[in-house]
């Protein structure tokens, strides 16, 4: 049975509370969900029972996520928590449970199994580019337009064949 890595949306949807499977998350996600007062005792119980494990991902896996998200153009849209669950998923060769589109997109670029919670999940894996709504200039990273200074917007681009998946076996 695969290890399930949970992001914050998984906790909000009640996934670890309705499953008997072992789950994993990161300290950053645990801190993010601590404000759920009535469920916090339940989270502590899952930890005490050994059904939820909180693991800090290794830096080398975080670096892989940052590099891939930069390549896909998704890096500006990812939080530290998002990066941490993606990194942990690679580290323990797990399945990622999330409804977050950007997290799912980066996960799919890395050839991870992504399990949606309350949505049907993403149908296409795409790279993102940033464009100027005023002069239509396209850039790979988020900034202001170098021509007119307008704030750029994000849009999907066709996936490039150079977006090679990363497999854990090749990382050792």
TrEMBL record:
Pfam families on file: PIN_6
Gene Ontology CC annotations of this record: cytoplasm; preribosome, small subunit precursor
Keywords: Hydrolase, Metal-binding, Nuclease, Toxin-antitoxin system
Domain PIN: 2-105
Keyword Transmembrane helix: no
Species classification: Archaea, Nitrososphaerota, Nitrososphaeria, Nitrosotaleales, Nitrosotaleaceae
One GO BP: maturation of SSU-rRNA
Biological role stated in the UniProt entry: Toxic component of a type II toxin-antitoxin (TA) system. Processes pre-16S-rRNA at its 3' end (the D-site) to yield the mature 3' end.
Molecular function terms, GO-annotated: hydrolase activity; metal ion binding; RNA endonuclease activity
Family statement: Belongs to the NOB1 family.
SUPFAM superfamilies listed in its UniProt record: PIN domain-like
Domain of life: Archaea
Record's protein name: Endoribonuclease Nob1
